[in-house]
Design brief:
Blueprint lengths: L11 E6 L6 E2 L4 H8 L10 E2 L2 H20 L3 E3 L10 E3 L2 E3 L11 E4 L2 E4 L15 H9 L3 E4 L10 E4 L2 E4 L11 E4 L2 E5 L6 H11 L4 E5 L12 E5 L2 E5 L16 E5 L22 E4 L2 E5 L3 H9 L3 E5 L4 H4 L7 E6 L3
Parallel strand pairs: 1-4, 8-9, 13-14, 16-17, 19-20
Antiparallel strand pairs: 1-21, 2-3, 5-6, 7-8, 10-11, 12-13, 15-16, 18-19
Length: 337
């Protein structure tokens, strides 16, 4: 299993597509509970197993994506089916697990290196075991696979203020989904799921071969991929409610910008674990082709007008489970940028 990816958009050759099996909302995770508590939704997120019909529908749609990718010549791998209901001791906390639906959240691939990221979400710190089959084969075939130090998530590591969760800089904390790659440029969103110490740690690991660029005061809540997408070397997709001409990173200022003013909101079950902007969470199959949620007709028209081919498929539970096409996939091998 060859590992190499240094962009978000070069032609896909091999990838992981997630699973919703045994998905649940975790118990015992202080960071997850804090993030849920700052939601403006009037009713709280309920802990426990996600209804089986949602899991089945989500899996069917991910299976369809896998079939489409296979027909396009992309080698598809899946996480190991894992029961997330058991209690696991994570340093200072005992939690249940969550899911392996959003495969990109925790594994960051930069060139031939795979990094198990120091997620602040305690209940997901053992999620890497769902990737054990992939990890064993990748290491056997020469990949550099490393694990960041696991944050303990003590009281001094995070706090809630002004309607959001803040990470301190005592230890590195970030999710892979805080990061976008553009050759030797690594764009890192500083937010509730990634602190400055995490960016500094990542820079220390990468050395002088890459530049980790901190993107601050753009979107405070979590991941980067509902705010910005890099579609090819000269085009980006930008959330017009968060991104402005002034805060586009310097290395992307040469790009054409497709401004997205609004999204078609997906329905959700009980609690919106993702906002309507998850519809902007698209996957570039190659520099001319983008996988988009079929409900996002205005976005599809925008992409087509800019010369992109679009593959439109449904992702009915993207808001319920908190992941769009970029979240639910992980590129293992792309052509080099």
């Amino acid at each position: 299993m060859k590992i190499y990816s240094n962009s978000e958009f070069m032609a896909l050759k091999s990838m992981v597509i997630g699973r919703a099996d045994h998905a649940r909302w975790p118990a015992g995770d202080p960071f997850f509970d804090s993030m849920s508590a700052v939601s403006t939704w009037p009713t709280p997120l309920k802990q426990g197993a996600i209804p089986e019909h949602i899991i089945k529908e989500a899996n069917n749609e991910l299976d369809d994506v896998a079939e489409v990718m296979d027909k396009r010549g992309v080698s598809v791998h899946r996480p190991d089916v894992t029961d997330w209901s058991g209690i696991t001791n994570n340093l200072d906390h005992a939690t249940t697990g969550m899911h392996s639906y959003s495969t990109r959240d925790l594994l960051l691939i930069i060139d031939d290196m795979v990094i198990e990221c120091p997620t602040p979400t305690v209940s997901r710190q053992n999620e890497f075991r769902a990737f054990d089959t992939i990890r064993r084969q990748a290491i056997k075939d020469g990949a550099r696979w490393i694990a960041a130090p696991t944050p303990r998530m003590l009281e001094q590591d995070f706090y809630t203020s002004d309607g959001r969760v803040h990470l301190t800089n005592n230890v590195p904390m970030f999710d892979a989904a805080n990061v976008l790659r553009f050759g030797d440029k690594i764009l890192y969103l500083v937010s509730s799921s990634g602190n400055e110490a995490g960016a500094d740690w990542l820079q220390s690991v990468l050395g002088n071969t890459h530049e980790v660029i901190k993107w601050e005061d753009v979107y405070a809540f979590a991941h980067i991929d509902s705010t910005l997408a890099i579609l090819n070397d000269h085009t980006i997709l930008a959330n017009a409610k968060r991104v402005t001409k002034d805060n586009i990173p310097d290395f992307l200022r040469h790009c054409d910008v497709i401004w997205v003013d609004d999204m078609v909101p997906r329905e959700f079950a009980d609690f919106p674990f993702a906002s309507k902007w998850i519809g902007m969470n698209v996957l570039s199959i190659d520099p001319e082709t983008v996988l988009v949620d079929s409900i996002q007709r205005p976005l599809i028209e925008q992409l087509n007008e800019h010369g992109f081919n679009t593959v439109a498929m449904p992702l009915s539970h993207s808001r319920t489970l908190g992941g769009g096409f970029h979240c639910t996939t992980l590129d293992l091998l792309r052509e080099k940028f």
